[in-house]
Structures are given as C-alpha cells and as structure tokens.
C-alpha cells in the first residue's frame, strides 16, 4: 500500500511541473506586464518601476524567471503580494480557513443529502418520490450557481430577512460562533446544491446496479431484514464507485466556491483570486492557481487510494 | 488489391442495399429520438429559445442600448414586457440580444472544443506510442487546473470580445472530448472492417478519416450537446464576474452583475436573465440525454 501511494506521488511530479509551467506562462502574459498594478498608481515614479523590474528579476528571460520562481516555490516561497508586500503564502493562508469552512460544510451537506435521496429513490424506483427527485435533479444540473445565489439572497435575505447574505460575521461585532454559523447557512446551501443533483444521481444509479445483483437476492432469501439488506449488503458495494466520484467532486467544488464566495462576499481563496486578478496582483494570482491545482492533484491521488482500499478486487501493485 | 479488380467486382446491388439500411437506420434514429419524452421537451425548449432570440430583434425593433430615463425602473408591462433596467433600457430586448450572444458563444466554443479534442484524441489513439503518452499527459495537466481559475486567467490574457470568450471556453473544454475520441479509436482499431480496409491497401489517414471517424462520433455528438449547454453557463458566469462579454453589449451573464444592487427595487432584473440561462441549459441537457439513449 505504502509503495502504491509513493509511486502515485512520484508520478504526479511531472504533472505538477506541467501545471506550474502553464500557469506561470499564462500569468506572464497578463496585460500591462507583471507590474501592471503599479503602472496605474500615480505615486510610483518610472525610476521606482525600473528599480522594481531589476529587483524582481523581470528584465531576465521568461524561462530564467520561471526557473528562479520554481526554485523558490519548492521551498515554500511564492513571492510577495504587490498589494501590501506580505508573503504570498501568508496572504493565502489567511484566507484558507474561510474556504475550508465553506467547502467542508457544503461538501458534508451535499454528501449526506445525496446518500439519503439516492438510496431512497433507488429502493423506491419509479415511485412518486423517485419521479420528483428526477425532475428536481434535472433542474439542479441546469441551474447556474450564481443565479441560485442571487435568488436565495433575494428571498431569504432581502425579502424575509431571515439570514445574513454577506461576509463571515456581522461587521463591528466581536467574533461569535453563532453569528459565524448564521452567515454560513446560505452560501453553504447554494454551494451544496451545485453538486447535490449530480451526486444523488450517482448514488441512485450505483445502488440500482447493486440491487439487481444475485447476492442481494441471496441476502433477502436468507430472510434478512430489508434494512440490513439495503444498508449492509447493497450500500457497502454501491459505495465503491461513489466514493471516487465524491472525492473528485471536492475538486470541482473549488470552482463553485469561487463563484459562491464572490456572490456572498465570503472572504476565502476564491474571492482573493478574483480580487487579485482584477487588481493585477500577479504573485497572488499565480500562488492561488498553483495551490488549487496541487489540491486537485492530491485529491485525485486520494480518490485512487480510496478506490484501492475499498475494493479488495483491485490489486494496487 | 489491384484497383481494376475492385472495379470488376459486381457491387451495384450490394451498394444499393447498404444505402437502404443506412436510410432506415437514420429514420429509426429520428423516430427513437422523437419518442424520447425528455428529448422532445428539450428540443422544444431549444427551438423556442433560438426562434425568439434570432427573430425577436427583427420583429421587436427596439435598441438594446438605448437609454430612456423616463422608463427607469418600470416593472414588466405592455411597453416593457420584462420591465426596464436601471438605465431605462428595455429588458426584453436585451434578453433577446444577449441570447444571440450566448447561443453564438455556446456553439462556437462547442465546435472548438470538439474540434481540438476530436483531432487530438483521434491522433493519440491512432498513432499510440510516445506521442499518445505525451498528449494524454497534456490532457492530465489541463484537467488538473480547476476550470474557473483557468478560464479567468485566460480571459485576462486574451483581448476582450465575444470571439475571444468563445475561444477561451473552447480551449478549456477539449480534454474530455479528446479522452472520449481516443477511447473510441482504440476500441474500433482492432475491428475486422478496419483490418479489411488495411488489406485493400487504403492509406492510414484515409482509414482514420473514412472508416474509423464515422463510427466513432456518436459519443462525441452527445458530449457536444452537453458541452454547448455548459459553455452557455460558463459564459454567463464569466460575464457575471466581469471577465466575459463586456457592457454595453448585453449578455445573460453581465445583465445579472448589476441586478444584485437592485434586488429589492427591481427584482425582475435578477429573475429573467438567469431563467433564460437555466431553461436553455436544461434544454441542452434533456436533448443530450435523449441522444445518448437513441444512439
């Protein structure tokens, strides 16, 4: 098992190399160049710009800049933010907890609901419940997430005044968990809806595959309670393909988080990426893009490992 | 085989028979598709959206960028079917023009995505070896950067414009078609009729184009339908965030950017553009589903 994981990690190194090349060279072609942010600032003189160019090594060829950036990046140094001069790693680290809180809550909510809905609609196939869920999941898969966010803000925030619709806490008040959780509810529901439709379909079809198998008939023939048949015999086997898909969905959630964080003014990494891109804060943009890609690569490995662990038929050497 | 020998073969009756079955296949495919309830609902939605957006601006001759402060904040009514926006522009007219842009971007980016993906997948599957390995690693890299982050980066690098957006979305959507096409080519390559084509001396590129491709495109068509729906959402998200179609050109996405400010006073501005994106994408998903079952 350990060798399997190590091998997967080693194989992902060229992949990560490719990713950094793509992101670095794309970011290098940002309009106005890497110092665009300062070009629009009246207080920065041409001499200062010239000094910065030399200091940051921007006068060197792109591939040299890339090599130097990479050499620092592997040691955990992603440069300094043009905004306030702090280390990029530090700036990003400040925003990570907010994103993790939102994504974690949304992921948990959507997975729990997906299992309940998926299992129920599989064992009550072609019932009214199954039919309604099918229609709803078509709607969910076609729903643009930012529009859902706007509708939710409109109904529960602007009209009913039930819940706050912006930020992580009430401005001017000291941090309290209750306040934070109240702010979390709406963005979590919106982000969870983003993946729920797909996930409940996966669970349903995976359950239906398993329920048709001989060993389920055998379990029923033994006289086991239906509950035990569904939860122990069917669900365990249906889990195998679903877990992989769910792990990969966590990566997909990152794009959804960017949109949700922007709509709900949630101060996470996605929002930081959006703001930095608007300002031309080049080192932060590159830093976030690289970090989320690394996260995706890691999640892919986790999915592979989970698959091998869960399915004893798969040999991982 | 000697070409004169091929000419000498008594083929005409056989050819006619083949054409007949081909025609019957196509008919049953259509009738299968038209019996598929979801596909019919989806097709109806798409036809309605296309007809209204393409013909609407001709019949409903208003200008989408004309500012009329007298109409500021008017709700839906006879003069303004979907109300007027914060500059008094007619919301319905803007929806129609925005729809043209959404459909154009969706279509172009689908063609680009399927085109690039199809070629790369076909070449990769057909040639195999180290080129295949290299191309598939490029696919892995492109799939590892979360799509919206990649799209926003690309949108800043390319000059703004409707064609750029279509190109960007196409460039970020070719990976799955490439994998699909590659696996199709790999499945078809060892079949007897491909061997037969080799045996009669067809050049490899001809076998790839004329023998393999026609048999490999079905899943690509299904994928293309769904991709077009996704591209329309992607365009809307990018424009909503301010990285897509730039005002004053209306697009369903950028019409929603301002709507958040007027959520209480002019809720219709937030409802109509999003609803159009929603039903259009729903239409593509339903048709894609029907195509998958009918093929």
Main features:
A: 317 residues; mainly alpha; MetI-like fold; 0% strand; B: 295 residues; 13 helices; 74% helix; elongated
Protein model, in words:
The complex is a heterodimer of chains A (317) and B (295). With 317 residues, chain A is mainly alpha-helical. Chain A folds into two domains: 2-73, no CATH class; 94-310, MetI-like (MetI-like fold, Orthogonal Bundle), CATH 1.10.3720. In chain A, 76% of the residues lie in helices and 0% in strands. Chain A contains twelve helices and no strands. Chain A has helices at 2-28, 36-39, 46-55, 62-73, 88-123, 128-142, 145-159, 177-211, 214-221, 226-263, 269-279, 282-310. In chain A, α8 packs across α10 (226-263). The longest helix of chain A has 38 residues, at 226-263. Chain A is globular and about 85 Å long. The N and C termini of chain A lie close together (8 Å). The model of chain A has no long low-confidence stretch (mean pLDDT 85). Chain B is mainly alpha-helical and 295 residues long. Chain B has a single domain, classed as Orthogonal Bundle (MetI-like fold), CATH 1.10.3720.10. Chain B contains 13 helices and no strands. Chain B has helices spanning 3-8, 12-35, 37-59, 91-127, 129-144, 147-157, 162-171, 175-188, 192-199, 204-216, 218-241, 254-259, 268-294. Chain B is elongated, with a radius of gyration of 24 Å. Residues 1-21 of chain B have low confidence and may be disordered. Classes of the chains: A mainly alpha (317), B mainly alpha (295). The A-B interface holds A 14-15, 18-19, 22-23, 26-27, 29-31, 138-139, 141-147, 150-151, 153-154, 158-159, 251-252, 254-255, 258-259, 262-263, 273-274, 277-278, 285, 288-289, 292-293, 296-297, 300 and B 137-138, 140-142, 144-150, 152-154, 156-157, 229, 233, 236-237, 240-243, 256, 259-260, 263-264, 267, 270-271, 273-275, 277-279, 281-282, 285-286.
């Amino acid at each position: 098992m350990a060798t399997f994981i190590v091998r997967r990690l080693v194989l992902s190194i060229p992949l990560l190399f490719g990713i950094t090349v793509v992101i670095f060279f794309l970011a290098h072609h940002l309009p106005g160049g890497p110092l665009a942010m300062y070009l629009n600032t009246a207080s920065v003189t041409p001499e200062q710009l010239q000094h910065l160019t030399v200091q940051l090594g921007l006068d060197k060829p792109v591939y040299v800049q890339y090599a130097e950036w990479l050499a620092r990046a592997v040691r955990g140094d992603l440069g300094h933010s043009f905004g306030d001069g702090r280390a990029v790693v530090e700036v990003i680290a400040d925003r990570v907890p907010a994103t993790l809180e939102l994504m974690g809550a949304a992921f948990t909510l959507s997975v729990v609901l997906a299992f309940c809905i998926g299992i129920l609609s599989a064992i009550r196939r072609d019932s009214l419940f199954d039919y309604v869920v099918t229609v709803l999941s078509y709607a969910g898969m076609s729903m643009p997430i930012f529009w859902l966010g706007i509708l939710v803000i409109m109904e529960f925030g602007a009209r009913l005044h039930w819940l706050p619709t912006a930020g992580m806490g009430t401005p001017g008040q000291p941090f309290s968990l209750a306040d934070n959780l109240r702010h979390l509810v709406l963005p979590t529901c919106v982000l969870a809806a983003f993946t729920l439709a797909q996930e409940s379909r996966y669970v349903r079809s995976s359950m239906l595959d398993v329920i048709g198998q001989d060993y389920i008939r055998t379990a029923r023939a033994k006289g086991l309670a239906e509950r035990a048949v569904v939860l122990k015999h069917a669900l365990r086997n249906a889990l195998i393909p679903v877990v992989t898909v769910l792990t990969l969905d966590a990566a997909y959630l990152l794009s959804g988080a960017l949109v949700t964080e922007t709509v709900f003014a949630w101060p996470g990494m996605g929002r930081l990426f959006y703001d930095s891109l608007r300002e031309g804060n080049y080192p932060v943009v590159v830093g976030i893009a690289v970090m989320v890609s690394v996260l995706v690569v890691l999640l892919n490995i986790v999915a592979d490992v989970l698959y091998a662990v869960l399915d004893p038929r798969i040999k991982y050497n | 085989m000697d070409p004169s020998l091929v000419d000498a073969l008594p083929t005409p009756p056989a050819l006619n028979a083949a054409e007949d079955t081909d025609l019957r296949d196509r008919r049953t495919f259509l009738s299968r598709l038209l019996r598929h309830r979801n596909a019919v609902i989806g097709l109806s939605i798409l036809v309605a959206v296309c007809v209204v957006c393409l013909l609407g601006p001709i019949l409903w001759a208003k200008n989408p960028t004309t500012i009329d402060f007298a109409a500021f904040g008017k709700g839906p009514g006879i003069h303004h079917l979907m109300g007027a926006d914060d500059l008094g522009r007619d919301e319905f007219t803007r929806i129609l023009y925005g729809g043209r842009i959404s459909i154009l971007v969706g279509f172009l980016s689908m063609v680009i995505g399927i085109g690039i993906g199809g070629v790369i997948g076909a070449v990769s599957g057909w040639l195999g070896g180290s080129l295949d390995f290299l191309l598939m690693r490029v696919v892995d890299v492109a799939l590892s950067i979360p799509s919206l982050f990649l799209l926003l980066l690309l949108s800043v690098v390319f000059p703004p414009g409707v064609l750029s957006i279509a190109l960007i979305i196409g460039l970020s959507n070719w990976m799955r078609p490439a994998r699909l096409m590659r696996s199709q080519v790999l499945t078809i390559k060892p079949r007897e009729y491909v061997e037969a084509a080799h045996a009669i001396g067809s050049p490899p590129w001809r076998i790839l184009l004329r023998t393999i491709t026609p048999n490999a495109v079905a899943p690509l068509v299904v994928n293309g339908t769904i991709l077009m729906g996704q591209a329309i959402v992607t365009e809307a998200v990018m424009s909503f965030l301010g990285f897509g179609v730039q005002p004053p050109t209306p697009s369903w996405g950028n019409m929603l950017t301002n709507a958040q400010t007027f959520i209480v006073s002019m809720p219709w501005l937030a409802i109509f553009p999003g609803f159009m994106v929603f039903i259009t994408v729903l239409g593509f998903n339903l048709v894609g589903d029907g195509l998958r079952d009918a093929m």
